[in-house]
């Protein structure tokens, strides 16, 4: 019986170490993805949206996008439609799905072109793709 606490402590410490390695590997991967995905930014996605690049913060990958004022108004009129479109895009992209399955959060942050004024922010985790 006196070995039980020692074994328990060993397993808890080894599990914490594994989690730490997973977190570290995820952060490293997200930093690499952000760097590679930001090459050539800013770049126009279409007439209304400009991709300003990606940034990694801990376990979150943030895509910053700027939109013209008229498009920003349309986005704010129906944020559920925007979320649904983004979710479909994220969940059908195998690269993003792998990151989500690793524990990442993928965030889209929209601002008005030429300013820092926020329009809409949407975040996704792996569970959001289970319904698709």
Automatic annotation (TrEMBL):
Protein's recorded name: Quorum-sensing-regulated virulence factor
Source species: marine sediment metagenome
Source species taxonomy: unclassified sequences, metagenomes, ecological metagenomes
